Amino acid sequence: MTEPFAVSVTVRGYETDSQGHLNQAVYLQYAEHARWSILRAAGIDQQDLIGKGVGPVALENTVRYRSELRAGDEVRVDCVFVWSEGKKFRVEQTITKADGTVAATVTGLGGLLDLKERRMVPDPAEYFRALASDPRVLGL
């Protein structure tokens, strides 16, 4: 099996809370950064999506915290799209410390919103496949 797409992030001091742990909201920001990065790696940017009249939407995100992160920690944020039939897809992400310890997992449910109709498109994978220069990055 090939390695999942991943980005590296260094935890910054201003992202921590009063106990010195990474603030809970920042885990979602790291996950979002990885999602946009995988789209760019596939050859899709925000303007491409807007040009097609669609935009990605997060319908649900679940974060499971496993090990604390502190300022200066180097982490890897994996990102895998899991496609199914219908309007929704899953995104599975793991935030892993440099020593291999899993700090958190983020599981999301998403879709593509038709920006004019304000409804989810019926087959988001087809939009991504059509826009991507390398759809394999997205598992398509």
Nutshell version of this structure?
The protein has 140 residues and is of the alpha+beta class. Helix content is 23%, strand content 36%.
CATH class descriptor name: Alpha Beta
Give the CA-CA distance, first to last residue: 15 Å
Number of strands: 6
Radius of gyration, in angstroms, nearest whole number? 16 Å
Report the portion of residues in β strands.
35-45%
Q: Give the CATH superfamily.
A: Hotdog Thioesterase
Query: Which class of secondary structure composition applies to the elements?
Result: alpha+beta
Shape label: elongated
Helix segment tally: 3
What is the residue-averaged pLDDT?
A: 96
Corresponding CATH architecture: Roll
Q: What is the count of structural domains?
A: 1
Tell me roughly what share of residues is in helical segments: 10-25%
Description of the molecule:
- The protein has 140 residues and is α+β, with helices and mostly antiparallel strands.
- It has a single domain (5-131), classed as Thiol Ester Dehydrase, Chain A, CATH 3.10.129.10.
- Helix content is 23%, strand content 36%.
- The chain has three helices and six strands.
- The protein has helices at 24-41, 46-51, 124-131, and strands at 5-10, 54-65, 74-82, 89-97, 102-114, 119-120.
- Strands 1, 2, 3, 4, 5 and 6 form a six-stranded antiparallel sheet that branches.
- A hairpin with a 6-residue loop joins strand 3 (74-82) and strand 4.
- The chain is elongated, with a radius of gyration of 16 Å.
- It starts with a strand and ends in a 9-residue tail after the last helix.
- 24% of the residues are buried.
